[in-house]
Amino acid sequence: MKKSLEQLEKEKVRSLLIAGAIIAAFGILLFFIRDNTVTSATSYIVGSIFLIAGLVIIARGVIAKKKGIEYDDPNSPKAIAHKNKILARLPAAREASHRHGTFRDETKVYSVTFGGIFMGVMFAINLALLVFRGSISPLMLIMLIISIIVFVALVLNKEDKKLMAAAAEKGYDINEINADFAASACYHNSFFAIGRKFLFTNDLLVPLSGLIWAFPRKQWVYNYINGIYTGRSNHFFLELYFDDGRSVELSCQEMTCYLAIDELRSVLPSLTTGYSKELADALYQYEKDPHSFPGNTALPDIYAFAEPAPDNT
Hints:
Elements: H1 5-30, H2 37-67, H3 77-97, H4 103-133, H5 138-156, H6 159-169, H7 174-182, E1 185-187, E2 192-194, E3 198-201, E4 205-207, E5 211-225, E6 228-242, E7 247-252, H8 254-267, E8 272-273, H9 277-288
Parallel strand pairs: 5-8
Antiparallel strand pairs: 1-2, 2-3, 3-4, 5-6, 6-7
């Protein structure tokens, strides 16, 4: 029998409290290890880490219990307050989205930064082992070598050039594309950018001229570890539909959905945005009768999400 969300949330709270208590207790036990100065010091450090981790997990369980189930009804007071909080932050975020580098810089900055951090962590671990143990673990040395290879590969990656070359083959002017990206709104966390003429992603360059409908979509993901429910998370997407039947789905953060809708409306003032079942039906009719979308369909709120149903995760 399928469990209700209420039952799953109770299980999550119970699992967090039990796991946190076990981890914290293990950390406390490590405080009582006595052997020599080095062993005792190590025990205190590791014990402190486990104790803090256990307390953090317990705190998450307490917060989850007080918080209860996330707002599911978009018209509930909590959901409306949450939306208003996001809307209040949009002006500053919108300005930030227009402050960015070139296409090559933006497509590489996060991957290269991640690669650099990974390499730095591996280097620090190997250095610590060399200083405190006088030797380096073969496994850690291999990880360091792998991190260096990954970092160099990310630096030398030429996917941006491949995309531009493919665009040139289609007859697009590279200077025009670069100028359009320079004027675009760039969303870094799940990289894509909306220019005046093009939509940019890591591997797509899409003209915006045929775009007829854009709306954000919310998806629930139920997370489990070894069969134990650990909570439900929200995933967000931007859905784009074009007049030739194509569609593009972009994974993004919740705020980015709002920012992207605003940017698209500034580029295409007559664009239909926001989701409703009636618009989905009108799109189906459009496939039979091109240029009919959205017809006489009543338009929803410009930011209206396609909301998940309990069984549509």
